[in-house]
Amino acid sequence: MVSSIKERTASIFPGFIISLTVGLAASFLGEHYGAPAMLFALLLGMALHFLHEDPKCQPGIAFTGTTVLRIGVALLGLRIALSDVIALGWQPFALMAAGVALTILFGLVIARLFRLKHRFGALTGGAVAICGASAALAISAIMPKSDSQERDTVFAVVGVTALSTLAMIIYPMIGGILDLSETQAGIFIGATIHDVAQVVGAGYSISVEAGDLATLTKLMRVALLLPVVLIFVMVFRATCGAEMATGKKPPLLPGFLVAFVLLVILNSLISIPSEIKSGLTTVSRTCLITAIAAIGLKSNLKSIATLGWRPILLMVAETVWLAVLVLLCLPYVVN
């Protein structure tokens, strides 16, 4: 038993250390240049793809892209407290739920029109609708394995991060053009921009009130990650047998989702010391960045280039759809 654990640890160590090093380098670049660290991790990993060709590195890189990823997703539960969701009121929550559901459905429909796999539409739709790269990684983690999974995940992360950064610049200007109040602008930004970091940047560029509300609204969207992933799990269990005879059906309730729920409940019932919460949030972010570095290491630029223009147009359409939907509904949610 002990010897097998040692052998397993020794086999994953080289690839894990490489992934961690790339992730830490990406975090450093992100902090010093004000760009998304996950995007840096992905691009650095792709540039070092040749390391994945070494058999000694492959087990650790695979471990990091799956197990470490799931640990990072599970720890996202510490960012959510049910009291915060309740405090915002049912109208914004209804808007978030409708926006998430309709954006995912929109992604499925447009993917079909563009002759793309509906799994890709679900992956990009969930990433745009919920929380960007983190949602893409969570949804990818519960998808049945396929030859195109890594490539599709990389594309979704790159696309949603680029669009989120662009939205961080454009959406505050849209709020000014439409003469939105600070409350409306905060909800609009929190309900539409994909990644949390960009939500914070856009919200506080307007005002402190808009930034606080945008962040809270965004966390409400993050809270919807659990029910969405659970629905995806049930759908994949029902359909993967027909689509992928060689793949395993995902479990009905993956362990990392159980941990996610328990941490949300724990964070809602007791007051966790800020030092502990901050430390575990940092661990979560490090796990996610390290995992996306591993996914980048496994990715081949040539295979991504074969996707063409239709996936790009799909993600742009999903982003515009969500923004227009929220803007149209906003007057009925906030006066």
Describe, in plain words, how this protein is organized in 3D.
With 335 residues, the chain is mainly alpha-helical. Helix content is 80%, strand content 0%. It has helices spanning 2-33, 37-47, 58-75, 82-88, 90-113, 118-129, 133-142, 149-177, 182-192, 196-206, 208-223, 225-243, 255-269, 274-298, 301-305, 310-333. The radius of gyration is 19 Å and the shape is globular.
List its salient traits.
335 residues, mainly alpha, 0% strand
- Show unreliable segments: 242-247
Share of helical residues: over 70%
Number of helices: 16
Quick one: overall form?
Answer: globular
Sheet having the most strands: none
Order of helices and strands: HHHHHHHHHHHHHHHH
Distance between the termini: 63 Å
- Structural class comes to mainly alpha
Question: What would a concise description of this structure say?
Answer:
This protein is mostly helical. It has helices at 2-33, 37-47, 58-75, 82-88, 90-113, 118-129, 133-142, 149-177, 182-192, 196-206, 208-223, 225-243, 255-269, 274-298, 301-305, 310-333.
List the helices and strands and how they pair.
Layout (H helix, E strand, L loop, with lengths): L1 H32 L3 H11 L10 H18 L6 H7 L1 H24 L4 H12 L3 H10 L6 H29 L4 H11 L3 H11 L1 H16 L1 H19 L11 H15 L4 H25 L2 H5 L4 H24 L2
